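Teaching assistant's notes for section 4

Start the section by putting this record on the projector. Ask students to predict, before seeing the second block, whether Ribokinase will look compact or extended. Collect guesses on the board.
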Amino acid sequence: DLMVIGSANIDLVVSLPKIPKNGETVLGGNFLEVFGGKGANQAMAGHRAGGDIGFICKLGNDRYGNDLQSYFTKTGLPQEFFLKDNHTPTGIAQIFVSEKGDNAIGVASGANMTLSPADLAPFIPIISTAKVLLMQLEIPLETVTYAAELALKNGVKVILNPAPAKDLTEALCKNLWLLTPNKVEAEFLGETPITNLTEAETAAQNIRAKGIENVLITLGDQGCLLHTENLTKHYPTFPVAAVDTTAAGDVFNGALAQGITQGWCLAEAIPFAMAAAALSTTKLGAQTSIPSLGEIERFLEQ
Ligand code: ADP
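Reveal the predicted structure now:
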Protein backbone atom coordinates (compact mmCIF):
# COMPACT_ATOMS: atom_id res chain seq x y z
CA ASP A 1 0.00 0.00 0.00
CA LEU A 2 2.89 2.34 0.80
CA MET A 3 5.87 2.03 -1.54
CA VAL A 4 9.21 3.52 -0.57
CA ILE A 5 12.01 3.75 -3.13
CA GLY A 6 15.32 4.87 -1.70
CA SER A 7 18.70 4.31 -0.17
CA ALA A 8 20.00 1.70 2.23
CA ASN A 9 23.40 2.17 3.86
CA ILE A 10 25.56 0.77 6.57
CA ASP A 11 26.62 3.58 8.90
CA LEU A 12 30.15 3.10 10.24
CA VAL A 13 30.16 5.32 13.31
CA VAL A 14 33.40 6.21 15.12
CA SER A 15 33.02 8.21 18.35
CA LEU A 16 36.17 10.24 19.07
CA PRO A 17 37.32 12.89 21.54
CA LYS A 18 37.33 15.29 18.58
CA ILE A 19 36.76 15.26 14.81
CA PRO A 20 40.12 14.66 13.03
CA LYS A 21 41.49 17.57 11.00
CA ASN A 22 43.07 17.17 7.57
CA GLY A 23 46.10 14.88 7.98
CA GLU A 24 45.37 14.12 11.61
CA THR A 25 44.85 10.74 13.30
CA VAL A 26 42.79 10.72 16.47
CA LEU A 27 42.88 7.67 18.76
CA GLY A 28 40.55 6.62 21.54
CA GLY A 29 37.40 5.92 19.58
CA ASN A 30 34.56 3.46 19.87
CA PHE A 31 33.16 1.85 16.73
CA LEU A 32 29.54 1.07 15.97
CA GLU A 33 27.99 -0.39 12.81
CA VAL A 34 24.35 0.58 12.30
CA PHE A 35 21.73 0.28 9.58
CA GLY A 36 20.87 3.53 7.85
CA GLY A 37 20.15 5.43 4.66
CA LYS A 38 17.20 7.79 4.40
CA GLY A 39 15.16 5.30 2.35
CA ALA A 40 15.65 2.50 4.87
CA ASN A 41 14.96 4.76 7.84
CA GLN A 42 11.74 6.10 6.31
CA ALA A 43 10.55 2.65 5.21
CA MET A 44 11.19 1.31 8.71
CA ALA A 45 9.38 4.29 10.27
CA GLY A 46 6.34 3.60 8.07
CA HIS A 47 6.51 -0.10 8.92
CA ARG A 48 6.76 0.54 12.68
CA ALA A 49 3.87 3.02 12.40
CA GLY A 50 1.70 0.12 11.27
CA GLY A 51 2.19 0.16 7.52
CA ASP A 52 2.29 -2.53 4.88
CA ILE A 53 5.48 -1.36 3.17
CA GLY A 54 7.24 -2.30 -0.03
CA PHE A 55 10.79 -0.92 0.13
CA ILE A 56 12.69 -0.93 -3.16
CA CYS A 57 16.43 -0.43 -2.74
CA LYS A 58 19.67 -1.58 -4.35
CA LEU A 59 22.37 -3.32 -2.35
CA GLY A 60 25.80 -4.63 -3.26
CA ASN A 61 26.45 -8.34 -3.42
CA ASP A 62 28.73 -8.15 -0.39
CA ARG A 63 28.83 -8.56 3.38
CA TYR A 64 27.10 -5.23 4.09
CA GLY A 65 24.41 -5.94 1.52
CA ASN A 66 23.74 -9.33 3.07
CA ASP A 67 23.64 -7.79 6.56
CA LEU A 68 21.06 -5.21 5.43
CA GLN A 69 18.98 -7.81 3.61
CA SER A 70 18.76 -10.12 6.61
CA TYR A 71 18.03 -7.19 8.93
CA PHE A 72 15.18 -5.91 6.71
CA THR A 73 13.76 -9.40 6.30
CA LYS A 74 13.92 -10.06 10.05
CA THR A 75 12.05 -6.84 10.76
CA GLY A 76 9.30 -7.79 8.33
CA LEU A 77 9.99 -5.90 5.09
CA PRO A 78 9.17 -8.03 2.03
CA GLN A 79 12.30 -9.49 0.35
CA GLU A 80 11.19 -9.30 -3.25
CA PHE A 81 11.99 -5.59 -3.46
CA PHE A 82 15.70 -5.80 -2.64
CA LEU A 83 17.84 -5.50 -5.77
CA LYS A 84 21.48 -6.62 -5.90
CA ASP A 85 24.31 -5.08 -7.90
CA ASN A 86 27.14 -7.54 -8.51
CA HIS A 87 29.64 -4.89 -9.51
CA THR A 88 29.13 -2.06 -7.02
CA PRO A 89 29.51 -2.18 -3.24
CA THR A 90 26.67 -1.52 -0.80
CA GLY A 91 26.36 2.13 0.21
CA ILE A 92 28.17 3.15 3.37
CA ALA A 93 28.39 6.30 5.47
CA GLN A 94 31.57 6.93 7.46
CA ILE A 95 30.54 9.02 10.44
CA PHE A 96 32.78 10.69 13.01
CA VAL A 97 31.05 11.90 16.17
CA SER A 98 32.91 14.04 18.72
CA GLU A 99 32.40 14.20 22.49
CA LYS A 100 30.81 17.61 21.99
CA GLY A 101 28.23 16.09 19.67
CA ASP A 102 29.68 17.51 16.42
CA ASN A 103 29.80 15.17 13.48
CA ALA A 104 31.46 14.79 10.09
CA ILE A 105 29.98 12.41 7.54
CA GLY A 106 31.32 10.99 4.28
CA VAL A 107 29.03 8.85 2.13
CA ALA A 108 30.00 6.31 -0.53
CA SER A 109 26.60 5.83 -2.17
CA GLY A 110 27.71 2.69 -4.04
CA ALA A 111 24.80 0.57 -5.30
CA ASN A 112 22.22 3.20 -4.26
CA MET A 113 23.36 5.32 -7.19
CA THR A 114 23.06 2.48 -9.71
CA LEU A 115 19.31 2.06 -9.02
CA SER A 116 18.07 2.89 -12.52
CA PRO A 117 14.60 3.41 -14.05
CA ALA A 118 15.06 0.05 -15.84
CA ASP A 119 15.54 -1.67 -12.47
CA LEU A 120 11.97 -0.67 -11.58
CA ALA A 121 10.44 -2.60 -14.52
CA PRO A 122 9.42 -5.67 -12.45
CA PHE A 123 7.73 -3.39 -9.92
CA ILE A 124 5.63 -1.28 -12.29
CA PRO A 125 2.36 -3.10 -11.39
CA ILE A 126 2.90 -2.75 -7.65
CA ILE A 127 4.00 0.90 -7.83
CA SER A 128 1.00 1.69 -10.03
CA THR A 129 -1.47 0.24 -7.54
CA ALA A 130 0.05 1.68 -4.37
CA LYS A 131 -1.75 4.41 -2.42
CA VAL A 132 1.36 6.45 -1.72
CA LEU A 133 4.93 6.53 -3.09
CA LEU A 134 7.60 8.01 -0.80
CA MET A 135 11.09 8.87 -2.06
CA GLN A 136 14.23 10.86 -1.14
CA LEU A 137 17.25 12.03 -3.14
CA GLU A 138 19.91 9.46 -2.22
CA ILE A 139 19.22 7.56 -5.46
CA PRO A 140 19.56 8.93 -9.04
CA LEU A 141 17.25 11.85 -9.83
CA GLU A 142 16.22 10.21 -13.12
CA THR A 143 14.91 7.19 -11.20
CA VAL A 144 12.95 9.42 -8.81
CA THR A 145 11.55 11.34 -11.81
CA TYR A 146 10.58 8.16 -13.64
CA ALA A 147 8.87 6.62 -10.60
CA ALA A 148 7.00 9.86 -9.80
CA GLU A 149 5.62 10.07 -13.31
CA LEU A 150 4.54 6.42 -13.30
CA ALA A 151 2.87 6.89 -9.91
CA LEU A 152 0.99 10.08 -10.70
CA LYS A 153 -0.28 8.65 -13.99
CA ASN A 154 -1.90 5.91 -11.93
CA GLY A 155 -3.37 8.16 -9.28
CA VAL A 156 -0.73 7.35 -6.63
CA LYS A 157 0.14 10.22 -4.28
CA VAL A 158 3.86 11.03 -4.53
CA ILE A 159 5.70 12.37 -1.48
CA LEU A 160 9.29 13.52 -1.99
CA ASN A 161 11.59 14.30 0.91
CA PRO A 162 14.21 16.33 -1.03
CA ALA A 163 17.20 15.21 1.01
CA PRO A 164 19.99 15.87 0.42
CA ALA A 165 18.85 19.00 -1.41
CA LYS A 166 19.45 19.36 -5.10
CA ASP A 167 17.77 21.31 -7.90
CA LEU A 168 14.45 19.75 -8.93
CA THR A 169 13.33 19.76 -12.55
CA GLU A 170 9.90 20.89 -13.72
CA ALA A 171 9.27 17.37 -15.01
CA LEU A 172 9.62 16.07 -11.45
CA CYS A 173 7.81 18.89 -9.61
CA LYS A 174 4.61 18.55 -11.64
CA ASN A 175 4.24 14.95 -10.47
CA LEU A 176 4.64 15.65 -6.76
CA TRP A 177 1.66 15.69 -4.42
CA LEU A 178 3.80 16.75 -1.46
CA LEU A 179 7.37 17.97 -0.93
CA THR A 180 8.79 17.77 2.62
CA PRO A 181 12.05 19.74 2.87
CA ASN A 182 13.66 20.48 6.22
CA LYS A 183 14.79 24.05 6.94
CA VAL A 184 18.15 23.78 5.15
CA GLU A 185 16.60 22.13 2.10
CA ALA A 186 13.76 24.69 2.04
CA GLU A 187 16.31 27.54 2.14
CA PHE A 188 18.09 26.01 -0.84
CA LEU A 189 14.97 25.20 -2.89
CA GLY A 190 13.08 28.37 -1.90
CA GLU A 191 16.19 30.50 -2.45
CA THR A 192 15.66 32.47 0.75
CA PRO A 193 17.01 32.28 4.31
CA ILE A 194 14.61 31.04 7.00
CA THR A 195 14.93 32.55 10.48
CA ASN A 196 11.22 32.81 11.34
CA LEU A 197 7.80 31.56 10.24
CA THR A 198 7.16 34.45 7.86
CA GLU A 199 10.35 33.62 5.99
CA ALA A 200 9.40 29.93 6.04
CA GLU A 201 6.12 30.86 4.37
CA THR A 202 7.97 32.82 1.69
CA ALA A 203 10.21 29.82 1.04
CA ALA A 204 7.16 27.54 0.88
CA GLN A 205 5.48 29.85 -1.65
CA ASN A 206 8.62 29.94 -3.80
CA ILE A 207 8.85 26.16 -3.72
CA ARG A 208 5.17 25.63 -4.47
CA ALA A 209 5.55 27.98 -7.46
CA LYS A 210 7.68 25.26 -9.09
CA GLY A 211 4.44 23.37 -9.73
CA ILE A 212 4.31 21.20 -6.59
CA GLU A 213 0.82 20.71 -5.17
CA ASN A 214 1.62 20.90 -1.43
CA VAL A 215 4.71 21.91 0.55
CA LEU A 216 5.45 20.94 4.16
CA ILE A 217 8.62 22.41 5.68
CA THR A 218 9.89 20.70 8.83
CA LEU A 219 11.52 23.13 11.24
CA GLY A 220 13.12 20.92 13.91
CA ASP A 221 11.96 21.91 17.39
CA GLN A 222 9.85 24.64 15.78
CA GLY A 223 7.49 22.04 14.30
CA CYS A 224 6.42 22.34 10.68
CA LEU A 225 4.71 24.64 8.20
CA LEU A 226 2.14 23.39 5.68
CA HIS A 227 1.48 25.44 2.55
CA THR A 228 -1.23 24.39 0.10
CA GLU A 229 -3.38 26.13 -2.48
CA ASN A 230 -5.93 27.09 0.17
CA LEU A 231 -4.03 27.43 3.41
CA THR A 232 -0.78 28.05 5.25
CA LYS A 233 -0.64 26.53 8.70
CA HIS A 234 2.03 26.22 11.38
CA TYR A 235 2.03 23.14 13.61
CA PRO A 236 4.06 23.64 16.81
CA THR A 237 6.05 20.65 17.96
CA PHE A 238 5.28 18.28 20.85
CA PRO A 239 7.58 19.26 23.72
CA VAL A 240 9.87 16.36 24.66
CA ALA A 241 13.29 15.96 26.26
CA ALA A 242 15.24 15.46 23.03
CA VAL A 243 18.58 13.65 23.34
CA ASP A 244 19.33 12.85 19.68
CA THR A 245 17.51 14.38 16.72
CA THR A 246 19.28 12.14 14.15
CA ALA A 247 16.68 10.89 11.67
CA ALA A 248 13.79 12.87 13.21
CA GLY A 249 12.99 13.92 9.64
CA ASP A 250 13.09 10.31 8.44
CA VAL A 251 10.69 9.17 11.15
CA PHE A 252 8.44 12.15 10.37
CA ASN A 253 8.30 11.27 6.66
CA GLY A 254 7.75 7.54 7.17
CA ALA A 255 4.92 8.07 9.67
CA LEU A 256 3.37 10.86 7.59
CA ALA A 257 3.31 8.70 4.46
CA GLN A 258 1.78 5.84 6.44
CA GLY A 259 -0.94 8.17 7.75
CA ILE A 260 -1.78 9.32 4.22
CA THR A 261 -1.78 5.69 3.05
CA GLN A 262 -4.45 4.94 5.68
CA GLY A 263 -6.65 7.51 4.01
CA TRP A 264 -6.00 10.35 6.44
CA CYS A 265 -5.81 13.96 5.24
CA LEU A 266 -2.74 16.07 5.95
CA ALA A 267 -4.39 17.69 8.99
CA GLU A 268 -4.71 14.21 10.52
CA ALA A 269 -1.39 12.76 9.36
CA ILE A 270 0.80 15.72 10.43
CA PRO A 271 0.20 15.45 14.21
CA PHE A 272 0.73 11.65 13.97
CA ALA A 273 4.07 12.20 12.15
CA MET A 274 5.12 14.91 14.62
CA ALA A 275 4.38 12.61 17.55
CA ALA A 276 6.44 9.80 15.98
CA ALA A 277 9.32 12.20 15.26
CA ALA A 278 9.21 13.77 18.73
CA LEU A 279 9.32 10.30 20.32
CA SER A 280 12.30 9.34 18.14
CA THR A 281 14.33 12.29 19.48
CA THR A 282 14.05 10.93 23.03
CA LYS A 283 16.22 7.91 22.14
CA LEU A 284 19.72 7.56 20.68
CA GLY A 285 20.34 6.44 17.10
CA ALA A 286 18.34 6.32 13.88
CA GLN A 287 16.79 2.88 13.28
CA THR A 288 16.98 2.16 17.02
CA SER A 289 14.86 5.20 17.91
CA ILE A 290 11.87 4.57 15.63
CA PRO A 291 8.67 4.32 17.71
CA SER A 292 5.97 1.68 17.21
CA LEU A 293 2.32 2.40 16.46
CA GLY A 294 1.41 1.60 20.08
CA GLU A 295 4.01 4.06 21.38
CA ILE A 296 2.76 6.81 19.04
CA GLU A 297 -0.87 6.21 20.02
CA ARG A 298 -0.08 6.24 23.75
CA PHE A 299 1.92 9.47 23.31
CA LEU A 300 -0.99 11.15 21.47
CA GLU A 301 -3.45 10.13 24.18
CA GLN A 302 -1.42 11.82 26.94
P1 ADP B 1 15.54 16.67 9.74
O1 ADP B 1 15.85 15.59 10.74
O2 ADP B 1 15.29 16.15 8.38
O3 ADP B 1 16.49 17.83 9.77
P2 ADP B 1 13.71 18.25 11.34
O4 ADP B 1 14.86 18.55 12.25
O5 ADP B 1 13.01 19.41 10.73
O6 ADP B 1 14.10 17.23 10.18
O7 ADP B 1 12.65 17.41 12.20
C1 ADP B 1 11.52 16.81 11.63
C2 ADP B 1 10.36 16.84 12.60
O8 ADP B 1 10.73 16.17 13.80
C3 ADP B 1 9.95 18.25 13.05
O9 ADP B 1 9.01 18.81 12.17
C4 ADP B 1 9.34 17.97 14.43
O10 ADP B 1 7.99 17.57 14.28
C5 ADP B 1 10.16 16.77 14.93
N1 ADP B 1 11.24 17.25 15.82
C6 ADP B 1 12.52 17.55 15.46
N2 ADP B 1 13.24 17.97 16.53
C7 ADP B 1 12.40 17.94 17.59
C8 ADP B 1 12.52 18.23 18.98
N3 ADP B 1 13.66 18.70 19.51
N4 ADP B 1 11.43 18.05 19.78
C9 ADP B 1 10.27 17.59 19.28
N5 ADP B 1 10.09 17.29 17.98
C10 ADP B 1 11.12 17.45 17.13
